[in-house]
UniProtKB/TrEMBL annotation:
Keywords assigned by UniProt, alphabetized: Glycosidase, Hydrolase, Signal
EC annotation from Swiss-Prot or TrEMBL: 3.2.1.21
Name of protein: beta-glucosidase
PANTHER family, per database record: LYSOSOMAL BETA GLUCOSIDASE, PERIPLASMIC BETA-GLUCOSIDASE-RELATED
Reactions it catalyzes: Hydrolysis of terminal, non-reducing beta-D-glucosyl residues with release of beta-D-glucose
UniProt GO molecular function: beta-glucosidase activity
Family: Belongs to the glycosyl hydrolase 3 family.
InterPro entries: Cellulose_Degrad_GH3, Fn3-like, GH, Glyco_hydro_3_AS, Glyco_hydro_3_C, Glyco_hydro_3_C_sf, Glyco_hydro_3_N, Glyco_hydro_3_N_sf
Keyword Signal belongs to the record: yes
Superkingdom assignment: Bacteria
Length: 766
């Protein structure tokens, strides 16, 4: 008996954990480097390759884990992790196979696309970015981590930090807009929220920044398409948010689908090794996107063996779904196309991540059924999601102060998005229980109260084309298509409208009209809804357009005809309440656009931080000038610029000053501006500071966001806002890709959006 106890103790010391029923007690193990080295020395080649394999299990039915196809591979040590499996009970069953039936009992890592919340769903990331509030954004990620970890998940494929300046690309919904500086701040906030600077906690999860790199700039805005740009643009405009995530300590990185300099990212050594590891010092592991390795075959990079070796040698450690590593690397090793040192290093990084997550000390660390019962979709989390969602909404127009609405009289709520709770969470809400989402109809009725009469009519379907609507309402995001004729639907809507004091038109995109593989060439509201809106306007009743979208839309016509427009994105499970809170003035809107709204698709890509040509348009009236850089048939400027967003109150900027008109590289400048609330409501304003480098060794943008502050002002209150400028704010990558600040003149603009006119100047002397 004594000998058996000794053997058991030694086994636990080597493997780092014991199989125990009491999951509250963890096993003390050796320091990470020593532990991982010992474990790696005991692994066979098949077991090593198994750690690099990330298949999807599907959502294994409880009680059937042992008989599933993936179970055999887990028992054989041929699986390093799984994704898209949900719930403590299911994950515990699968984990038990790994730690009880495999030879070395190495625990699995469990990942999921926890993108903007778990069951408590926050606004889509594009909407979330429009809060310009890093504390709110970090808390949203922390709540997502709390809920996901309570349900067995310990790894999220988020944040997505791809800069994008072309809203034809559907995945703009999943990112933070067009600006590298703002995107970098959000990347840090999200990583900190998920990981909490301590992966050993049972309520933190490992983040995975994606998609590295440049995924947001595909040609023609078509998903997965070719990306081709200069290195100077990569470093100045597209790389910063990825680097910010790395600097924040992100545990993993996901490769993008696109090519870079003619080599797909998944097999690009310059990207994964030279930039990510050598220049930026990344210490975690890289995972491919879904089937990223075999997809390189279609890129023309070789057969499965060739592209698998290419990927491993480039610096990719984990193969998502493709199983190229598992099936071909042994042959490549025999043929000396890869080395055992490269394989060992990849395995080491995976094992280190599992060590950091505490899985060797307790493989069931994330499998506490009590947490799953008490920490998911709680009242407090829902309250936070509602408050955050309200601050993500962007008021685009409010003619004659039509908003906020009164909590009295009769409101006609009309449109295919009005009673569509399944669409409120938006795209990439894989853990959301759609039945828990709050529709706009429910939200308006509850927030307006008993003294307000709310009438509802659908008015139209999403689109006249039923096939298009089917494609746009996948994954359970149904709009319950109405089989009546368009004439019948419109007649019902007009009957309701004519009984009302004000019309709220809930129109726009469905949730799955944006997101992955949802590229669009036409960014207007579908014609069926345009026809409905025009008919409602003809009633003479005041109309408020509540615009649902996952991207900037082309709404030039609507902006000309509709008196009030509230852009609401897809605001999450509490969307209906949050939108109603803003419509009725319980919350004063404070969202600011993080992506430019074009006047027409032909302007794309469009963004504020553009460069001048040698023949810029001189006039500001939009008049066509021959031999200038402009269009014959459209103005140059957007419909709504980056940083734009109205409030129910008004803000006045004055007294912009800089502490000195000269600065050397060791000094700091202070920029101050007075901001006054000159309206009739308390409100929040995001004060934005932009800088222009007037003369450079390479051409520089007309202005770049360098700082911002979101402040709260009571009506009549004035506040002095102070920004600090250091030489780091003036640096950029030059033609030699050196990060430098060049002496010369700089202009500073401060205001409420990227068109800020108030300006001061200074000179950097050395």
């Amino acid at each position: 008996m004594k000998n058996k106890l000794v053997l058991l103790f030694l086994g636990c010391a080597v493997l780092g954990y014991a199989q125990k029923k009491n999951t509250k007690n963890t096993v003390k193990i050796k320091p990470k480097s020593e532990f991982v080295a010992e474990l790696l020395s005991k692994m066979t080649l098949d077991e090593k390759l198994g750690q690099l394999n990330l298949p999807t299990s599907g959502d294994i039915t409880t009680g059937q884990a042992n008989s599933s196809d993936v179970a055999k591979k887990i028992a054989e040590g041929k699986v390093g992790g799984l994704f898209n499996i949900k719930s403590v009970q299911k994950i515990r069953e699968v984990q038990r196979i790994a730690v009880e039936k495999s030879r070395l009992k190495i625990p699995l890592i469990f990942g999921m696309d926890v993108i903007h919340g778990y069951e408590t769903t926050f606004p889509i990331p594009l909407g979330l970015s429009c809060t310009w509030d890093m504390n709110l954004i970090e808390r949203s990620a922390r709540i997502a981590a709390q809920e996901a970890s309570a349900d067995g998940i310990n790894w999220t494929f988020s944040p997505m930090v791809d800069v994008s300046r072309d809203p034809r690309w559907g995945r703009v919904s999943e990112g933070s807009g067009e600006d590298p500086y703002l995107g970098s701040q959000i990347a840090k906030a999200m990583v900190n929220g998920y990981q909490q600077n301590d992966l050993s906690k049972n309520n933190s999860i490992m983040a995975c920044v994606k998609h590295f790199a440049l995924y947001g700039a595909p040609e023609a805005g078509r998903d997965y398409n070719t990306v081709d740009m200069s290195h100077i643009r990569m470093f100045n405009d597209y790389f910063p948010p990825y680097k910010a995530a790395v600097d924040a300590g992100v545990g993993s990185v996901m490769a993008s689908f696109n090519e870079i300099d003619g080599i797909p990212a998944t097999g690009n050594k310059w990207l994964m090794t030279d930039i990510l590891r050598k220049q930026w010092g990344f210490k975690g592991f890289v995972v491919t996107d879904f089937t990223g390795i075999p997809e390189m075959i279609e890129h023309g990079m070789g057969d499965l063996q060739a592209v698998s070796a290419l990927s491993l040698n480039a610096g990719v450690e984990m193969d998502m779904v493709g199983e190229g590593f598992l099936g071909t690397l042994k042959k490549s090793l025999d043929e000396k196309k890869v080395t055992i040192e490269t394989i060992d290093n990849a395995v080491k990084l995976i094992l280190e991540a599992k060590y950091d997550l505490g899985l060797f000390s307790d493989p069931y660390k994330y499998c506490d059924a009590n947490r799953a019962k008490t920490e998911i979709f709680t009242a407090n989390s829902r309250k936070e999601a509602r408050s955050t969602a309200a601050q993500s909404l962007v008021l685009l127009k409010n003619q004659n102060q039509l908003l906020p609405l009164k909590k009295s009289g009769t409101i006609a709520l009309i449109g295919p998005l009005a009673d569509a709770k399944e669409n409120m969470p938006g795209t990439w809400s894989v853990a959301t229980r759609m039945e828990n989402a709050i529709s706009l109809l429910t939200g308006i009725k509850e927030v307006a109260g008993a003294s307000t009469k709310v009438l509802y009519a659908k008015g139209s379907n999403l689109d006249y084309d039923e096939e298009f609507e089917t494609k746009a309402t996948m994954f359970g995001k149904t709009l319950h298509r109405d089989g009546r004729s368009k004439e019948e639907l419109l007649a019902e809507a007009l009957k309701v409208a004519n009984q009302s004091d004000v019309i709220v038109a809930a129109l726009g995109e469905s949730a799955e009209m944006s997101g992955e593989s949802s590229s669009r060439t036409n960014l207007e509201i579908p014609q069926a809804q345009k026809d409905l809106l025009n008919a409602l306007l003809k009633t003479g009743k005041p109309v408020v357009l509540v615009l649902f979208d996952g991207r900037p839309l082309v709404i030039k016509e609507e902006n000309e005809t509709v008196p009030a427009i509230l852009n609401v994105w897809f605001a999450g499970t509490e969307a209906g309440y949050a939108i109603a809170d803003v419509l009725f003035g319980d919350v004063n809107p404070s969202g600011k656009l993080t992506s430019t709204f074009p006047r027409s698709v032909g302007q794309l890509p469009i963004y504020y931080a553009h460069k001048n040509t040698g023949r810029p348009l001189v006039n500001t009236e939009g008049k066509f000038e021959k031999f200038r850089s402009n269009y014959i048939d459209e103005r140059n400027e957007p419909l709504f610029p980056f940083g734009f967003g109205l409030s129910y109150t008004t803000f006045e900027y004055s007294n912009l000053k800089v502490s000195s008109d000269k600065m050397n590289s060791g000094e700091k400048l202070k920029v101050t501006v007075d901001v006054a609330n000159t309206g009739n409501y308390d409100g929040k304003e995001t004060v934005q500071m932009y800088i222009r480098d007037v003369v450079g060794s390479v051409t520089r943008p007309v202005r770049e966001l360098k700082n911002f502050q979101k402040i709260t002002l009571k009506k009549g209150e004035k506040q002095t806002v102070t920004f600090e400028i250091t030489v780091e704010d003036l640096k950029f990558y030059n033609s030699a890709l050196q990060f430098v600040a060049e002496p010369g003149q700089f202009e500073v603009f401060v205001g409420g959006n990227s068109n800020a006119e108030k300006k001061v100047s200074f000179v950097l002397t050395n």
